[in-house]
Amino acid sequence: MAEVEKLKQLQLQREALKKRGEQKVKETEKKRTEESVQSVCPPECGSRQLVHDYERAELVCQSCGLVLDEEFIDRGPEWRAFDHDQRMKRSRVGAPMTFTIHDKGLSTMIDWRNRDSYGRAISSKNRAQLYRLRKWQRRIRVSNATERNLAFALSELDRMASALGLPPRNVRETAAVVYRDAVDKNLIRGRSIEGVAAAALYAACRQCSVPPRTLDEIAEVSRVSRKEIGRTYRFISRELGLKLLPTSPPIDYVPRFCSGLNLKGEVQSRAVEILRQAGERELTSGRGPTGVAAAAIYISSILGGERRTQREVAEVAGVTEVTIRNRYKELAEKLDIEIIL
């Protein structure tokens, strides 16, 4: 009896498959006939030269001028693109993937506002259910220890980048990629998450050639010491094989330091010129770029009539007053600059 029932079930399945196949054949034939009608002008001339007039939403025969279809729907985009880059930028395929979120931005998120898709307030009866859904959505997004590690580290990266005033998006993306590579190669074990995240951000600043950030500045916004950040940075750059450019020359620090001291553009230009002359005479080699830049700004502020004290310059540059004193004396002596204190 069991075998008979199996045979009946097989026969029913075969009949259902046959019906599906016949239905698909009918649908394809119907589509072909519709396409042939739309591609030919049968009432008048039988021409195949048909033109879609998207401004009037009409299908017109180019030979006889007969309107074959009107008020059709334009399923194309409402924008124009003149090259491949514009077409890729303007195509709408959802939010872009990002490495700064632990799930790369591919998951959904329930908004914190209690409003529906039309902007209307959700009733008090459904708010409790929405609260539970929002809570479980947050829990589902972070499912294991690795994702929890990434979520915390990437949030720290974003916080430190905001505190340092790093607007370029590529710096945060590069730092997130460096941290993910360190996690994949198990370089996090035995080290703090904050230290590795700070080291990844410092490496990203070096790779992306943004206005330079020193280890002291990154240590101020992070929760670890300068020594640990430097040690972790050297370790991950060696293990990951990062190709990093040499440290930035002193001239790159001048705009940021002058902005912090509220100095005019003339003072900044004079400081850049002093550093250029010092570089030509090899006075900057073997010395810290921040100290040399601070000394040049100090000299320039005196010459430009906008005097700043050594303590003010040292606080902005993150160096000691002794360093500025030694460097500005060297620059003034070698470049024959007369300074009237």
Describe this structure in words.
The chain is mainly alpha-helical and 341 residues long. The chain is built from 13 helices and 3 strands. The radius of gyration is 34 Å and the shape is elongated. The protein has helices at residues 2-39, 84-90, 124-141, 145-164, 169-184, 193-208, 215-221, 226-240, 254-260, 265-280, 289-303, 310-317, 321-334; strands spanning 50-53, 58-61, 67-70. Helix 4 packs across helix 6 (193-208) and helix 6 (193-208) packs across helix 8.
Number of strands: 3
Number of helices: 13
Low-confidence stretches: 32-37
Strand order of the largest sheet: 1-2-3
So what's the overall shape? elongated
User: Which class best fits the helix and strand makeup?
Assistant: mainly alpha
Strand content: under 5%
Percent helix, as a range, is 55-70%
- Report mean pLDDT, rounded to a whole number: 80
Biggest β-sheet strands, sense, barrel: 3 strands, antiparallel
What's the SSE pattern? HEEEHHHHHHHHHHHH
Gyration radius over CA: 34 Å
End-to-end separation: 112 Å
Lay out the secondary structure.
Layout: H1 2-39, E1 50-53, E2 58-61, E3 67-70, H2 84-90, H3 124-141, H4 145-164, H5 169-184, H6 193-208, H7 215-221, H8 226-240, H9 254-260, H10 265-280, H11 289-303, H12 310-317, H13 321-334
Antiparallel strand pairs: 1-2, 2-3
Helix pairs in contact: 4-5, 4-6, 5-6, 6-8, 10-11, 11-12, 11-13
